Amino acid sequence: DLAAREAALRGAPAAAAELVELALRLGDAVSEAEHRRMLDLADYLLAAGERVRAREVLQGVDSWKQWSPRLQARAMARLCRLVCDTEHPAAAAEFLELLLREPFGVEARAALHGGLSYSASEVDAAMAAQHADEALALLEPLGEATDPWVHSAALYMRLRAGVLLGQGLDRELIDRIDAVEARLPPERWPFERASPSIGYWLKHVDDLDGSRTWLERNLREAVERGDESDQLHVLAQLAITECWAGNLEPARGHALAAVRLADELKEEFAALLADEGLALVEAHLGDADAVRAIVARHPPPPSPRRHGTLLFHAAVGLIELSLGNHEAAG
Q1: Rounded to two decimals, what is the model's pTM?
Q2: How does pLDDT run across 226-236, given as a tens digit for each residue?
Q3: What's the pLDDT score for residue 306?
Q4: Phi-psi region of 49 (alpha: psi -120 to 50; beta: other; left: phi over 0)
Q5: Other beta carbons within 10 Å of 287
Q6: Please, are residues 155 and 133 in contact by the beta-carbon 8 Å criterion?
């Protein structure tokens, strides 16, 4: 376990995953230590960009009854993220609602409501807010005994639902997220914090300077950790922020840097994120051929998803509109 953790901290999550898989083959499948290793394995695989394998680890659990309430909660929080990133919102909601019928503890149920909030936000902001409120209603009576990752994630889901409902960005909720995350251990994965994602929402309330500042801080932290996957995510968001601010050359620089990292990581989802940012920037620069070539690299998913649909449609629509092809732009 220690060797795996050290490998992960060195920026080698794939090697850490291999070490944990070896330990799992040698250990007792029903012990608390093995449950923690399974969660560690999912985290290492996620950090290595292997979302499908990470999801398979957690979905492969035959029964959650032997897991402690705290590990149940963390596993559900991680599984929610993986399902929402890889499924159509309706399919993700159906899967998570089935899990909600399981006899989980309070924190695990709250994590599932957080995941349902995320999936609902694609189609129904009011439902997203309702699930976030249900998560908080379960957690807040526990006070500081709550798992800080599960609690901050629930607060973040309420924050984003408020933006989607047109209520603006609740600065008090941001302060509460910061206060809860102060209880996280120093050694943690970036995806165990909700606060880095706030930079994404700042641009949606027209605070482009705030978004830039937040994302640039995220980028510095990712560089210091040697976390190329997180650097890619931040660069893609910085590209969009600068694009919306009208700073198209810096935007293109960020987008191209994200594409280069995606090429190095050789991970499909990473390439999709990088190309979404680049397509939007090239559309604003008026390069129709570049936009079409980027979109052609990613066949459309069988049903609309958060990634691979919306920004590509926006980029193509902008190009068609600029060319006077109004029907195609629609």
Answers
A1: 0.85
A2: 778 889 999 99
A3: 60
A4: left
A5: 16
A6: no
